[in-house]
Amino acid sequence: MSRVFFKETMEKLSASWQGAYCRELDDASWLLVFSQDLTASADYCPFTEQLVLFAPVITLDSQTRNANFLLRLLNANFSWDETKGACFAIEQDIVALVWRHPLKALEHVELQDALSSFSETVSNWKPRLADVEQTAEMTASSVPDNGLIC
User: Which domains, and CATH codes, for the chain?
Assistant: First the structure.
């Protein structure tokens, strides 16, 4: 399995799937647009030979980058049944869901179903994290000026 297999798989998906707009960014990355507010990248990881899906869920600001919110985000990674195997990650100020799958096993998985499931999972988590983010903002605004969280 290789970058060539990844590219061929994504080209077939792009040609036949109506569930999202797919566009090749380079030989190891594709943009997937499920809706106006839901995009993802599909990337080939040569070190692990995996398909890696990355979808932004929310953007953090200075108030939501606090221990309470981040702890709740880490705890959400234990919700395997609710994330369907995806994990939350933070890249710069973007909280994203990340899902990895071995390329060699793609022949045994219906990729369209996996991508649809991933997009549904992201869609379900967006409002949930927005609620947690709003709670974190209220908590952050009540923190004393010395920055201590009691």
Answer: 3-141 (3.30.1460.10)
Write the pLDDT tens digit of every residue in 96-141. Answer: 999 998 887 876 567 888 888 999 999 999 998 887 766 655 554 5
pLDDT digits (tens, 9 = 90+) for 23-38: 999 989 999 999 999 9
3-state secondary structure the chain: CCHHHHHHHHHHHHHHCCCCEEEEEECCEEEEEEECCEEEEEEEECCCCEEEEEEEEEECCCCCCCHHHHHHHHHHCCCHHHHCCCEEEEECCEEEEEEEEEHHHHHHCCHHHHHHHHHHHHHHHHHHHHHHHHHHHHHHHCCCCCCCCC
